[in-house]
Specification:
It contains three helices and six strands. With about 120 residues, the chain is of the alpha+beta class.
């Protein structure tokens, strides 16, 4: 009887250890990059998303903007937003964990309006 209980306990321990075993090599978090570029003369903002590198996202956003005065505003791995204030003649931008948070962070002036916002996931 003791031998049977010990064997059952051994099987139970092996079963539990199998349930809680993790792969030996954990995968690193993979990021997808997004970017927003804007033209100060035309007050337009264009974006790119789901790129494997920040540089690729930036290059695509600048290309999508398509104006000679386009410049990078924000590069991000979650969400980003670009806003413009007419009264202050300023463009502001920010990152966030959600579109709502990125937009709230970018609205720095009372009369700001969002030009572009998006998330990569």
């Amino acid at each position: 009887m003791k031998k049977m209980l010990a064997t059952a306990a051994g099987f139970a321990a092996v079963g539990l250890s199998t349930l809680f075993t993790y792969p030996a090599t954990a995968q690193a978090d993979s990021y997808t990059w997004g970017a927003i570029a804007y033209s100060p003369s035309e007050l337009i903002a264009k974006a790119s998303w789901n790129h494997s590198t920040a540089g690729s996202a930036q290059s695509r956003a600048l290309s999508a903007c398509g104006r000679s005065d386009c410049r990078m505003a924000v590069t991000f791995t979650r969400c980003g937003a670009v806003a413009h204030s007419r009264a202050n003649r300023r463009v502001s931008w920010a990152e966030g964990n959600s579109v709502r948070q990125a937009e709230a962070n970018a609205l720095r002036y009372a009369d700001s309006r969002i030009l572009r916002s998006l998330c990569t996931r």
